[in-house]
Amino acid sequence: MNNTSNLSTLSETLLLETVGEILIVRISRPEKRNALNDETILSLEKLFSNIPDGIKCVVIHGEGNHFSAGLDLSELKERDVVEGIFHSRMWHHALDKVQFGKVPVVAVLHGAVVGGGLELASAAHIRVAEPSAFYALPEGQRGIFVGGGASVRIPKLIGMARMQDMMFTGRVYTAEEGYSIGLSQYLVEEGQGLEKAMELARKISSNAGMTNYALMHVLPRITESSQEQGLMMESLVAAIAQSAPEAKERLRLFLEGKAKKVGEA
Ligand code: 1HE
Q1: What is the helix (H) or strand (E) element at residue 239, kind and residue range?
Q2: E strand or H helix at 78, and its extent?
Q3: How much is the pTM?
Q4: Which residue, 189, 205, 221, sits at the end of a domain?
């Protein structure tokens, strides 16, 4: 487990492995289709708040035949309104740590990516799907509402009307459909998701730190700003990024013909 030993008190439902600069997180509760109980959500928050030094990208995937069947419905006990709000906020805090943590996150999707499972996937930065993946928000049919951030994150991926349709009608999107509407950025052969995610994670890890930081933390804020404020933020970040020694070195290498051209492997 290398330098992840400080996270050894994490839930048994999250298995960790370090490969170079990449941390692989496996949701490991296949007998319950990787349903996300409170313990797992709190452990995700702890993990993503304590990404070890030296880790530059996280890959998250699910054990068994499914990424995740969402909220552990067996824990959906009687809650009063305030307890219900706190429970939803617990998910928000955890998934905010995934989205706005220290390093980019690549999710590998197969089988059920439903309810809270889709909420977790949508907090990642890159989603790689296998053909078995299917997407749904069964909250509509279960008589509840999304509570793990779906109403904020999913319309940004696929538009509000598609999310309304998923919840009004129980519509299930296939992996192919999900890829074409933007639920995943990649669609690969069955069983190839982890390998593709690792390939992408290695590319992400090789970027300048400031570029990854700006993509994770500044771009989402720019896209929610007015044009005037967004353009100003862009200029500020561009100037900061350009002034970093790492950026100067990368530009020098390109000008000397020593860096890869666009599209070169
Ligand atoms: C579960 C859960 C779960 C399975 N919570 N225990 N999510 C859902 O509404 C999806 C519910 N699950 C399913 O529709 C199906 O399980 C699957 C399509 C994902 C997989 O089907 P299958 O045939 O492979 O498995 P199964 O036989 O349905 O389930 C195997 C076991 O996992 C079984 O337990 P067992 O003790 O009888 O063996 C199931 O009860 C258990 N299981 N899914 C608890 N979700 C922050 S708000 C988010 C709100 C939501 O996410 S709501 C959507 C919840």
Answers
A1: helix 227-243
A2: none
A3: 0.95
A4: 205
Residue 109 has which token pair?
A: 């999707």
Tens digits of residue pLDDT in 174-204? 999 999 999 999 999 999 999 999 999 999 9
Backbone angles phi, psi at 126, to 5 degrees: -130, 135
**CATH code of the domain covering residue 172:** 3.90.226.10
Atom of ligand 1 nearest to the CA of 72: 5
Same domain, 216 and 200: no
Residues in the ligand 1 pocket, defined by CB under 6 Å: 32-33, 35, 66, 69-74, 91, 112, 114-116, 138-139, 142, 146-148
Distance of CA 166 to the CA centre of its chain: 20
pLDDT, position 2: 46
Cα 88 to chain centroid, rounded = 18
Residues 75 and 127 in one domain: yes
The pair of three-digit structure tokens given for residue 219, joined into one six-digit string = 């771009």
- Tell me which residue range forms the domain holding 245: 209-255
Mean pLDDT of the chain: 95
- Predicted local distance difference test score (pLDDT) of residue 159: 98
Q: What total of structural domains would you count in the chain?
A: 2
